[in-house]
Amino acid sequence: MPSFPHSLASPARFRRLSRRVLPWASALAAGLLGVGLVWALGFAPPDYQQGDTVRVMYIHVPAAWMAMLCYAVMAALSASFLVWKHQLADLAARASAPIGACFTAVALITGSLWGKPTWGAYWVWDARLTSVLALFFLYLGHMALAGAFDDRERGGRAAAILAVVGAVNLPIVKFSVDWWNTLHQPASVLRLDGPAIHGSMLWPLLTMAAGFAAFYVAVLLVRIDGESAARRVEVLTRRRAAGA
Amino acid sequence: MSAFWTLVRRDVTLAVRRGGEAALTLGFFVVTVALFPFGVGPDPALLGRIAAGVVWVTALLAATVSLDRLFRPDLEDGSLDLLALSPLPLEAAVLAKCLAHWLVTGLPVTLLSPLMAAMLRLDGAAHGPLAVSLAVGTPALSLTGGIGAALVLGARRGGALCGLLVLPLFIPVLVFGVSGVEAAQAGLPALPHILIEAAILVAAVPLAAFAGAAALRLALE
Amino acid sequence: MTRKRRRMAFLAAGLACFALAAALVLAALEDKVTFFYSPSDLAVEPVGPDARIRLGGLVVEGSVARTGDGLTTTFELTDGAASVPVSYTGVLPDLFREGQGIVAAGRLVGGAAGARVPDAVFMADEVLAKHDETYMPPEVAEALVEAGYWREDPPR
Amino acid sequence: MAVDSATAVLEVRDLTCERGGRRLFADLSFALGPGDVLVLRGPNGSGKTSLLRLVAGLLAPAAGRVRWRGRDTRDEPGPWRRAMAFAGHENPVKPALTARENLAFWIGLEGGASVDGALEALGLDGLADLPAAVLSAGQRRRLTLARLAARPGGCWLMDEPEAALDAASAARLADLVAAHRDRGGVTLVATHDGGAFGRVRTLALGGEP
User: Fold this and answer.
1) pLDDT value of position A8
2) Which residue(s) pair with A155 in the sheet?
């Protein structure tokens, strides 16, 4: 009878933990997003230049932050999976990819809706927009590669290599607005000499960002659970084939 | 070092003997470029404006179509096992194979680009920058392409998947390759753009070596 | 060579490559890679009459005028050192105001290559408004201007 | 097994192999001295090919080590790779190259003795300048094995070498192995026909007695 070392134990322990954290993360996400939306759309002041159009920012900016954060998390998990071969890292990296792709899509769509009234164009091929589009394609490639192998483990490792290689795009996305004189504005919040955004707009923005982050954690936990279930199905199927 | 060149020479020989792979790539490149005047009309001003982009995108596609053959035949006939076991580090073997890929795709495309540029009525002053940008950029395509080709070994529908993985990684090379030529067309120096392309090329060497070798080891398991 | 030693050697070679790449990028950025030209660039560097370029700068106060049909707008674009007259037919973005930074794409017409002729006009086919990274409510902007801290006039 | 660590050339200790979450074998140990031939036997899927690939260094073991002349083959692959020759299931033969070019490429890459001698050892000297595309399956198999002939005295790892070989070629292979063991070479071979190699030791995998 073949044995299956460390294939089931660790995800099971994680599942117990995640069941405890999930309700809190979900409640936090719902609360923060609810408060943040009302605050941003109802009470935050219009911008001195852009007027009410600026309210797109409260969705666009957190989504763009999460798009990058998700990829950074995914790349870090992938690197640790390649080095230490920890199953949970693989599950979490796989679970992260579609969420990150959604955040990137939201950032791109809201960005183009914001670009039309302020810049005068839905889409411009400047360095920031182009590198974020590449980020979106990287997410899609990661998801396609992870699912393209008959052996899940192998797909996970190939996708992990891709995620680590693709991480070179992250600094390009972040610093494109500083390195090149782009149409996209430079950073307003994450800059060395303090935010260039008034407190009455910064706080609702940060609330929304925290809500997005909590939402990410909640969805990630649910998705890891799903990935781990899919993995167990495969292990059991193999065990049956081996036993027969 | 001699093992490295032995591998390069074998891959180039194979590509040349296998129905002239270099000639096929070149044919693909020339025919595709020649399709554009039919598609967008023969207006010289329009063609001249899009020439750099057309030549670059076509060169990129020419590099992509042959990527699937970079490692797959070696995997299928067991050559990859022996490459991984030979005293030559697998990282170096990946670089050798990417170099051979460039010699039969990127290099001929670069050499032929002035002719294509003339066909598309590109401004004469931009011919040199176009050739230089291709000479610096196409090796980077072969290297990043090598990563994609190694990653999809053993995957279902590997060929189509390889394109999906590799094309977003090609975007920076394409952007700076074309922007250098456009700068030259506008009478500005192309050098800064070429330097960034060179930076991408230099960074792609270790990236392709490590990621490519890791992907090949995965495919051999 | 043991595996660990070889790994260290590879790592060192890889890092050297990345350092060289970074040096090349820095060398390239010395010669700014621009998304658009400034009016001073046009005064110094020749631009062919056929080249479609992007021109960036601030809209000169009091220079905006609409022609008879109401669709064509003319204005001056400046970067402080030089200015270029621009003509554009079409709908302008919300953020287009006097004093605002914009990017116009189009061709320089009437200017010989290299030498700026006074009657050269930049015929724009696209006008994009570039906004900066500052966000604040209108009252705050007004207060800043009154206190003398703010560089631009608030919108009216 | 019989050979102790002092005289062992190739030493395998506590090797455990897992493939796709399944354990193929565990805590496998053996040691081979100069001239030893170890025949691997076992039903399909018992791990013969995996063991060969593990020893070669193509697979990472779940546990255990492989030592060549006292040195760990994973920590210090250099000496092992220069001494070892691997012949797997497939024939790494490129149809577009001639038989001589195929062999010369591998010898150029891996190092080894003369190309002509190796071709002659497997009776391929008359076919040397034909493109490999026209060779029969058995001839291609011989071309693959010629690589081993070019690396005498080291460790040969062979996965079903007799596949597609006719009786005469199989006898030639047996002679080759005999000459190899006379020079103090070590051989690991997965085969259903171990009798051809004279006095051998046998390792049964997959619970076979």
Assistant:
1) 45
2) none
